[in-house]
Specification:
Layout: E1 6-11, E2 14-19, H1 30-45, E3 51-56, H2 67-72, H3 77-97, E4 102-106, E5 110-111, H4 113-119, E6 123-127, E7 131-133, H5 147-155, H6 157-166, E8 170-171, H7 172-178, E9 183-185, H8 190-202, H9 208-219, H10 224-239, H11 242-258
Helix pairs in contact: 1-3, 4-5, 5-6, 9-10
C-alpha cells in the first residue's frame, strides 16, 4: 500500500508515524485509517523498534474525522464509518500492546479521533499552544479510538462524561493537570524537547521499557498481590538479561572508580 496520509520510517530503533494531511488539518478519513492499521502491524512486527513516535505536519495535530468524507458516503455512512473505526481500532490495539513505548508529540489542536489518539500515549508531550477537544457529540457522534476506555481511567467517570458531553477546549496546561499529557513545553523548544525525550528512551537498555509498559498495563486489572507477583517475575527476568548484567557491571565499575 502506498502511503498518502501517513509518513512512516523505521531506523535505529525508532518508528516514526507522521500524520500528513496538512491541507485538511490532519483529519482522519478512510484512507488514513487503513494506512494507520497497516503501519501499526509493521511496527509491532519489527523487534528492532524500541520507541514509537507519532507526530504531525502543520499547525494541527489531528482535528478528528473528515466529515466531508462521511457525507461523501452518506448512502452507506453506517458501514463506511464502522469500517473506518475498525481500522482505527486495529491501530489503537496494536499500539497499546506494542512493547515499545508510544510517544505522541502534540503540536496543535487534537480533537475527535486525534483527542482519543493522544490518550493512548505512554508519554504525550505537547506544545504550550496545543489545544484539546473531544468534539464528538458536537455533531451527534460518539467517541471512538478507545476514548471512553482511556479517559475515565485518567480523570474518573464524572469528569470524562463532562468532557465528552460538553466539549470544553482544554489548554495544554489543563490537559497536563488532568493527566492527559505528561509534559508541556514552550512552542519554541518543542522540537528539541521531543528529540531529547526520544533519545532518552532509546538509550534505556533493551527490554526494560517493554517490561515496564507491560507491568503498568497489568496493574489496571490486578490486585496488589497479583501485581507484586508480576513485579517479582519481571524484575527477575530483567536481571537475567545479558545487557542488564553488562549495565550493572559498568555501573559498579564506574562507582569504584569514583571512590
Amino acid at each position: 500500500m502506498k502511503l498518502t496520509r501517513i509518513e512512516y520510517s523505521a531506523k535505529d530503533g525508532l518508528a516514526r508515524i507522521t500524520i500528513a494531511n496538512e491541507a485538511k488539518h490532519n483529519s482522519l478519513d478512510a484512507t488514513f485509517c487503513a494506512e494507520f492499521a497497516k503501519v501499526s502491524v509493521e511496527v509491532v512486527s519489527d523487534p528492532s523498534i524500541k520507541v514509537i513516535l507519532i507526530d504531525a505536519h502543520g499547525k494541527s495535530f489531528c482535528v478528528g474525522g473528515d466529515l466531508d468524507n462521511f457525507l461523501e458516503n452518506r448512502h452507506r455512512v453506517q458501514a463506511h464509518v464502522s469500517e473506518m473505526a475498525a481500522n482505527f481500532h486495529t491501530a489503537t490495539a496494536h499500539l497499546r500492546r506494542a512493547l515499545a513505548p508510544v510517544v505522541i508529540a502534540v503540536n496543535g489542536m487534537a480533537a475527535g479521533g486525534g483527542f482519543s489518539l493522544v490518550l493512548n500515549a505512554d508519554i504525550a508531550i505537547a506544545k504550550r499552544s496545543a489545544r484539546f477537544c473531544a468534539a464528538y457529540t458536537k455533531t451527534g457522534l460518539t467517541p471512538d479510538g478507545g476514548g471512553t476506555w482511556f479517559l475515565p481511567r485518567l480523570v474518573g467517570l464524572q469528569r470524562a462524561f463532562d468532557i465528552f458531553a460538553t466539549n470544553p477546549v482544554l489548554t495544554a496546561d489543563e490537559a497536563f493537570q488532568l493527566g492527559m499529557v505528561a509534559r508541556v513545553v514552550d512552542d519554541d523548544a518543542f522540537s528539541a524537547e521531543v528529540q531529547k525525550l526520544v533519545a532518552q528512551l532509546l538509550a534505556v537498555p533493551d527490554g526494560a521499557l517493554g517490561a515496564l509498559k507491560q507491568l503498568l498495563r497489568k496493574s489496571a486489572g490486578a490486585s496488589l498481590d497479583e501485581q507484586l507477583m508480576n513485579e517479582g517475575i519481571a524484575i527477575g527476568e530483567s536481571a537475567a538479561r545479558p545487557n542488564t548484567i553488562a549495565g550493572l557491571d559498568e555501573f559498579v565499575a564506574r562507582r569504584a572508580r569514583k571512590t
